[in-house]
Amino acid sequence: MQKRLIMGGSLLDVTLRRLAQELIENHGDFSDSALIGLQPRGTFLAQRLKAKLEEELGKEVGLGFLDITFYRDDFRRRERPLAANQTDIPFLLEGKKVVLVDDVLFTGRSVRAALDAMMAFGRPGKVELLTLANRRYGRDLPIEAHYTGKSFDTVRSQRIEVEWTEQGHDEDRVWLTDSE
Questions:
Q1: DSSP string over the chain
Q2: Per-residue pLDDT averaged across 117-124, rounded?
Q3: CB–CB of 116/71 below 8 Å?
Q4: Does residue 124 sit within a domain?
Q5: What pLDDT score does 138 carry?
Q6: Which residues form the Phosphoribosyltransferase domain (predicted)?
Q7: Which of 28, 35, 79, 126 is least enclosed by beta carbons within 10 angstroms?
Q8: Model pLDDT, residue 143
Q9: Domain total for the chain?
Q10: Distance (Å, rounded) from C-alpha 125 to C-alpha 118?
Q11: Other beta carbons within 10 Å of 118
Q12: 81: CATH
């Protein structure tokens, strides 16, 4: 298995700052907007974006975490059951502009599950998608991100792995791995 670094710490920081600026451009002061990180891996990115936004705006930005486990279309097809995470959305979704945040967009199935799961908590006024890494090839559903850190041309046998210091890694990195 080959592993290649495709984004390191400094490039990752520049990318996060750019994404935060794009969000401010489209959502203003975030008074009627919020971030929702998809459990488990989108939460780290959402927390980083929240910090960048608050640093820039000088005010609190709404952040929630959404568990999509029981809304996945492969939930009952796996040999081992998926471990559920906790949903924590400490604000009303009704009428809010919501930015769903996930680390990697590949088939689009996680995003579809997130849309279903989110509707159990209310009806947002608008929903957008932000992803750090967009795998351009391999989409199963017609889902695209409104905000993308970086797009990569990959094949099915490859994976994109995002590592954060909050997970115990030495530094923030994004890797492309080949299983062949």
A1: -EEEEEE-HHHHHHHHHHHHHHHHHHHTT-TTEEEEEETTTHHHHHHHHHHHHHHHHSS--EEEEE--GGG-TTTTT-SSPPPP---B--S--TT-EEEEEEEEESSSHHHHHHHHHHHTT---SEEEEEEEEEE-S--SSS---SEEEEEE---TTEEEEEE-GGGT-SS-EEEEEE--
A2: 92
A3: yes
A4: yes
A5: 85
A6: 16-152
A7: 79
A8: 95
A9: 1
A10: 12
A11: 23
A12: 3.40.50.2020
- Asked if 78 contacts 105 with a C-beta cutoff of 8 angstroms, the reply is no
Residue 89 pLDDT greater than 60, yes or no: yes
The 10s digit of each residue's pLDDT in 42-66 is 999 999 999 999 999 999 999 999 9
Instruction: Confirm whether 176 is domain-assigned.
Output: no
Domain residues for the domain of 63 are 10-152
Give the pLDDT score at 81: 59
